[in-house]
Amino acid sequence: MLLSLILVFSGFGGDIGWGQTEHASKLVEGAKKEGKLVWYTSMAIDTSKPILDEFLKEYPFVKADLVRAGEEQLLSRIMTETRAGRWLFDVVSTSAVQVLALRNFLSPYASVETRAYSDELKDSKNRWTAIYNNNLILTYNTKMVSAKEAPRDYGDLLDAKWKGKILMDSTDYDWYGTLASFWGKETARRYLERLAQQNPAWRRGHGLLAQLVGAGEAPLGWAYSFRVERMKKEGAPIDWVESFNPIVTTINGIGLSVKASNPNTSRLFIDFILSKKAQEMIRDMRRIPARSDVKPLAPKMDQSKLRLKLVPGEVSVNIDQYAEEFRKIFGL
Length: 332
Hints:
- It is a single chain.
- This protein is an alpha/beta fold and about 325 residues long.
- The protein folds into two domains: about 1-130 and about 250-305, D-Maltodextrin-Binding Protein, domain 2 (3-Layer(aba) Sandwich); about 135-250 and about 315-330, D-Maltodextrin-Binding Protein, domain 2, CATH 3.40.190.
- Helix content is about 40%, strand content about 20%.
- It has helices at about 1-5, 25-35, 45-60, 70-85, 95-100, 175-185, 185-195, 205-215, 225-235, 265-275, 275-285, 315, 320-330; strands spanning about 35-40, 65-70, 90-95, 105, 130-140, 165-170, 200-205, 220-225, 240, 245-255, 310.
- Strands 1, 2, 3, 4, 5, 6, 7, 8, 9, 10 and 11 form an eleven-stranded mixed β-sheet that branches.
- The radius of gyration is 21 Å and the shape is globular.
């Protein structure tokens, strides 16, 4: 399990690197002397490589190593290397970035670009900032449910007419944990107990759930909005509801290693990936850029109009506890 790896990380410390924003020209000067960047990421290669290539076009004096792995493999690699005293990564981007920050793997860096990011999508101590986010929304088959009939918020899912008609992911533990954080644990537990009485059908993977709703296997399901928008563009009879409060979101965020070998180049790269130019690239790859001043692919994806709640770091750290409670409530 991804975050089980994180839980065994003992507090690696080390000297905290620079925490203050520096003038761009000084970063460039320092980066020219370093001439290298090592980026560890769980981001898909068809997203990460074009971004890195564009960065290298702007700063051709940099030689970069892109280390791409799945979430579990990436975190396992970081754990193994740092335990041996080998801090090989300069920057890291992962969905577990909050936990890495809590475990003292990341150094503060207040990039000037973070001014364009909402407080929900950046760390108050400047250890990480979201690159893109995944908004977990209720999707529906438009041939089976009209926009007027579709549930508008969580309470509507408890209507008897939706019994046996909702698809859910059997591993949405962080969704439950975030609702518990937002509503209070007892309120969230009681809600899930009532939702369990609706006899939801279970699958694993939000991409699969979106496909099944689009295919008409069920009228309702939980999926990521970016995937639903892709399917809509391809002609699938599917849409999603933007009015839920909260809409739980996960991120792929970026942070600076506390022992970066190339700190100037790392900061330069963080500035670049958070810039409007790079964020527009991410949008054009049909992701949801975290930067607030980037025009969304579809009007309803405008994040300033969505009531987003980021999965808290506390939930990630205690994910095994939330998983146990989730499975018990739903009898999984």
